[in-house]
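Case 349 in the screening queue. Each case pairs one protein sequence with one candidate compound; here the compound is adenosine-5'-triphosphate. For every case the pipeline is the same: read the inputs, emit a complex structure as tokens, and attach any notable structural observations.

Predict complex for case 349.
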Amino acid sequence: MEQIILTGDRPTGKLHLGHFVGSLKNRLELQNLGKYEMYIMIADTQALTDNFGNIQKVRDNILEVALDYLSFGLDPNKTTIFIQSMVPELTEISMYYMNLVTVSRLSRNPTVKEEIKQKNFEKSIPVGFFTYPISQASDITAFDANLVPVGEDQLPMIEQTREIVRSFNNLYGENTLVEPKAMLPENKTCLRLPGIDGKAKMSKSLGNCIYLSDTSEEVERKVKMMYTDPDHIKVEDPGKVEGNMVFTYLDALCNDSHFEKHLPSYKNLDELKAHYTKGGLGDMVIKKFLIKVINELLTPIREKRNELAKNPDLVYEILRQGSERARNKAHKTLIRIKNAMGINYYDEK
Ligand code: ATP
Ligand code: MG
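Case 349 output:
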């Protein structure tokens, strides 16, 4: 079977290290394998469901997210990068899927539940926000995607999509829609990178991020603020690695070659952890190392981004062309859906 990938990000802010380890790294590898047809979507329609009062923010971040993609190495010649609202077929498909999902099923979605709490929606949840998992099902299935590289928070969305696909195919014709699978990062820490404040998830909406576009000074300032082990007061005190944000980030980001270059007195992270646990290793040493690791990863991205940012017209042209390609594909799926449902009234059979 042909392998098709759909993933995306909400244009609610610049992309951060959570995206780096949770999805971008996988996407880049998949793109460069050259075996997949890959679609990457800037999910503005979805971003509007909780930012409808702040259109300017969504507008501005379409360019920012596109700049992050391109500077990270996503290549418009290999990958179709597009804007969700520029493919109106997605909205129409969502409308048909809405009949296949119950309110109580949506209410049980743990990610949506958590976000409702986080955003203080309480009893006044916008319908658009409440139903975004359905629109995500439409995005995925419109491209016949069978693989969706995402972070752990997206698993309930993929499950919801699979249920919609099964209901649709049962009702309207087997094999009309493709059932997708999530692709999670292999490294457990990358499933959900916590924020610099130690909160469960680094997230644009929580403002606890190290952005791909942060300057090296910003990286330094943020790492220095990071929470380590509150009981590790003197250098000689034994320290805890678990729940220590600096080690969590090192788990997600560093490899042995970083030690060779920046901290050659240790061979690898296990040695560093052992020393910290035993005592005699100060927080400044591990923080300085983390700063170097992050800056080594971000410097090339930052440089390319600064270049690309000088030419926003080119970036919008890439998005325009990508959206046109995406629209062609989604249109074919929409026709297939309508045929399967029998709402192709003008077609003579
Ligand atoms: P928002 O706060 O607006 O929801 P976000 O920071 O959660 O933004 P999204 O655009 O919702 O980012 O997520 C895009 C993709 O990045 C998803 O696949 C998500 O799983 C992944 N992702 C986001 N944050 C993290 C994180 N901290 N760790 C791992 N993956 C993440
Ligand atoms: Mg999110």
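Case 349 observations:
- The chain has a mean pLDDT of 95.
- Residues 231 and 239 are 7 Å apart (CA to CA).
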